[in-house]
Amino acid sequence: MTKNVLLVRYSPYWAAPVLDRDDVDLYVVHERTPQGLAPDALARCRKVYYVSSFDALEELSAVAADLVSEGVGIDKVMSANEFSQYAAAYLAHLLAADQPASSVVLATRDKRLMKQRARAAGLHTARARSVPDPAALADTDAALAEVEGGVGYPAVLKPANGWGTVSTTVVRDREQLRAALADFRYAPELRSRQLLLEEYIAGEEFHVDAVWRDGEPWILRISRYVTPPLRLREGAGPGLSVLLDEDDHADLYREVGELHRRLNEQLGLTRGPTHLEFFREEGTGRLVFSEIASRLGGLAVTQLVGAAVGVDEREIAVHEMLDGDLSELPLQQGAFRYHGMLNIIPPRSGRVTALPTRDELLAHAHVVDVSIGARIGAEVTLGDSSASVCVMVIYGADSEDELLKIGAELADSHPVEVA
Predict the structure, then answer these.
(1) Which of 24, 36, 113, 365 measures 20 to 30 Å from 154, CA to CA?
(2) Is the domain 3-100 a CATH 3.40.50.20 member?
(3) Which residues, listed in sequence order, are joined to residue 239 by a DSSP beta bridge?
(4) Residues 6+ apart with CB under 8 A from 154
(5) How far is it, in rounded angstroms, from Cα 417 to Cα 415?
(6) Out of 3.20.20.140, 3.40.30.10, 3.30.1490.20, 3.30.390.50, which CATH number does the structure's domain 127-199 have?
(7) Residue 330, phi then psi, degrees to nearest 5
(8) Residue 263: closest CA among 301, 232, 289
(9) Which tens digit of pLDDT belongs to each residue from 198-251?
């Protein structure tokens, strides 16, 4: 049976799993730009609505009213991007679609609420304090003392509704905190100006990527950042995630699976994709919750998971969203026991003068997939975010040591050069 799907914010990458399905009629809400959507995208959509912003409630309401008045029943609302999740939840509410729920989106977008839910589920979290009025706090010693006293130093100052390490900074004393608050640099995409100050957790950092149905995971895979994202911004090591073999890390998978289920129950999250991050704290070895999103992971995480399970995670998430059955997916063990996601970036910021080609990298026996995110002549600025993408390589090996060795060889033999 054909389902009407409303996609909030079109991108070829995220829309790909629904574009060629004959059981989907696709409707799109997209932000208004001078050029609009490309003709090939328009040809696949039943209707495209343009809004000035995904935060414009009146414009979004008008989209819902038009669909209802035209007799279009929207079955599913789809958003895989941070910038459009609140809009997707609002439209789903107006159109009586079953997901995403606004309460789940709020608790998986605002880091203050998600930490409260995590603590209620019995998870360890970093100590944290809300900073709803940064400018006022910066001028008041008493208020600074109250906030820092609840967290300690070093601390991490970040947007309450941010993502990744965008607009995130480490502060090591009161004067650094005061300076950061007085001149906080918000990424253009951030709408809220409320911040969070949280304890800096030293240790290994992991991400967990899963798709859920009725409170149980269809798939759940754990990956370790070789260099934690905050340290990666400082040039401390390779941009590499290692997807861990479940048999070799059975205890970790068991503990994380149980913690994830408890957290989902507190969030009211029973189905769909999640991207969760946690630390293994240095010294204690305990698992400390960092954050969760009710969406797929960014960068090339979906291909990384796909290499391990035989189906791109985007396809799995869409199949679940459309009420498909797990048994219908051709899941299978990947060609290697371990898989890695390597981001090859230049040693410094600059204009790109040389790039490896996709075909060159795919010729390597261990390389599974390649995405080129830069081009010759483009300016690459490092340090603003861990998500500066140049050349993403998905590859495999039969042990973690071998994977790390191959990753270093790939980065050395296929560099991104800048002038």
Answers:
(1) 113
(2) yes
(3) 343
(4) 170, 171, 172, 200
(5) 6
(6) 3.30.1490.20
(7) -80, 55
(8) 289
(9) 999 999 999 999 999 999 999 999 999 998 887 776 666 688 999 999 999 999
